[in-house]
Amino acid sequence: MDEKENKHKAFKLLILIFIGIMLFFLKEENQAKLAKYLGTFKMESRSLKLQNSVSMDMAEGDVALYDDNILLWKGNRLSRFKLNGDKVWEKEFNLDEPQAYFGRDQIYVYERPGGQIYIIDPEGESKEQFQLNINIYNLMEGNNGLLIHSKEEDIESINILDKEANLIGQKSIEGQNILTYSMDGNNELLALSTLNLKGESLRTEIQVFGVEGEFLWTVYLENEIAMYLKFDDDNNLIVLTDRGVYQIHEGNILWKKQFQLIKDIYMDEEYIHVLYENVLESLSFDGRTFAKNSFAEGYKKIVFNGDHIILYGDNYILGLKEGMEVFKFDSERAIERLLCGKGKLILIHKEGFDILSY
C-alpha cells in the first residue's frame, strides 16, 4: 500500500468523523450541552460575604422570606421582621393546636381540630377566613388551590380546594396511611401514595384519581416508601422513594433509577435534581444523567435561587451554576434553614439569622 493511498484513507476517515460530529450537534439537547460546557470556561467565581447578623430566638419556629422581610411563626404568633431585625407587626391566634403554612404569596394559619383556616398576606392583612369542620393533619398549596390532608379515626382524606377556597373534590382512604400527595397543573389529577404494613413486607401503593374521586390507575412498589410525588408538564408522575426515582405514565413505569442514601429532590422545568450520599445528580425527563457532581462535605437540602442550585448541610453552603462551583460558605453555627432572596441568602440558626450576599 503506497503513501498516497494511506493519505486518501486518512482523509476519508477524517470526513466521516466530521460528519458524525455535525450530526451529533444537530440535536437541540446536544447543542444545549455544548453551550453550557463552553459557558463554564468564562464562569466567574463569586465570594459569599456575611453582610449582617441579627440575634433573635428562632428555636422551634418556622420561617419564610417575602419581599426581603422575614416572617416567623412561633407558638401561636405570626411576626414580620425587616432584615435589620426590626419588628414590623405581630399577630396572635388564640386557636386550639394552631399551625401555619407559608405559601407562595400568602400565609395559611389553621386550627388542626375543627378546620378553621385564616388566609393572610405578607403585609399582615386578613384575606379570608373559613371553617371546614374537619381535623386537619396537614395543608399545602397545589398549583391552583389547596390540598388539605384530614384524618377522622380510620379514614384519611385529601380535600381539594380551588383558589376561592371552594371544595371541588375529595378522596378518602380507609385503613391505610397517606404518605404524600400531589395535584397536576390543571387541577384534574390527584396522585397519592399509601403505605401498607400488613403482611411480611411493607408495600407502597401509588394511586391516581380524577378530581371528583374516580379511580384512574395504580402502581405497587414493594419494600419502598414514597416520599415525593409531582406531575411533570406531560402529566407523567415523578416519584421519589427511599431507593430511587421513577417516572410513571398511566400506570406504566417508563423508567426508574436507583440511588443510595437519598436526601432531597428538586424538579424544575428541565431537570430532576437528586441529592444522595455526597452526590448531586441531574436527570433529564427521559431518565438520562445530564450532570453529576461529587462533594467532600455532607449536604442535606437543595434550594434554587435564580439560576443557582444551592446545597446546604449542618454547617456548609455550596452554590452551583451550570454545574460549576461558584461560591462556598462555612458556618460557625448549625444551619436550620436557608432562605433565598435576590442576590442574597438568609441563613437561619437557633439564635437568629445571617445575611449572606454573592
Briefly summarize what is shown.
The chain has two helices and 32 strands. It has helices spanning 3-26, 28-39, and strands at 49-55, 62-66, 69-74, 77-82, 87-92, 98-102, 107-111, 116-120, 126-131, 136-141, 145-152, 155-162, 167-174, 177-183, 189-196, 203-210, 215-222, 226-231, 237-241, 244-249, 252-258, 262-267, 272-276, 279-283, 289-294, 301-305, 308-312, 316-321, 324-330, 337-341, 344-349, 352-357.
Describe this structure in words.
The chain is mainly beta and 358 residues long. It has helices spanning 3-26, 28-39; strands spanning 49-55, 62-66, 69-74, 77-82, 87-92, 98-102, 107-111, 116-120, 126-131, 136-141, 145-152, 155-162, 167-174, 177-183, 189-196, 203-210, 215-222, 226-231, 237-241, 244-249, 252-258, 262-267, 272-276, 279-283, 289-294, 301-305, 308-312, 316-321, 324-330, 337-341, 344-349, 352-357. It starts with a helix and ends with a strand.
Annotation keywords:
single chain, 358 residues, 4-stranded antiparallel sheet, 55% strand
Helix/strand layout:
Blueprint: H1 3-26, H2 28-39, E1 49-55, E2 62-66, E3 69-74, E4 77-82, E5 87-92, E6 98-102, E7 107-111, E8 116-120, E9 126-131, E10 136-141, E11 145-152, E12 155-162, E13 167-174, E14 177-183, E15 189-196, E16 203-210, E17 215-222, E18 226-231, E19 237-241, E20 244-249, E21 252-258, E22 262-267, E23 272-276, E24 279-283, E25 289-294, E26 301-305, E27 308-312, E28 316-321, E29 324-330, E30 337-341, E31 344-349, E32 352-357
Antiparallel strand pairs: 1-32, 2-3, 3-4, 4-5, 6-7, 7-8, 8-9, 10-11, 11-12, 12-13, 14-15, 15-16, 16-17, 18-19, 19-20, 20-21, 22-23, 23-24, 24-25, 26-27, 27-28, 28-29, 30-31, 31-32
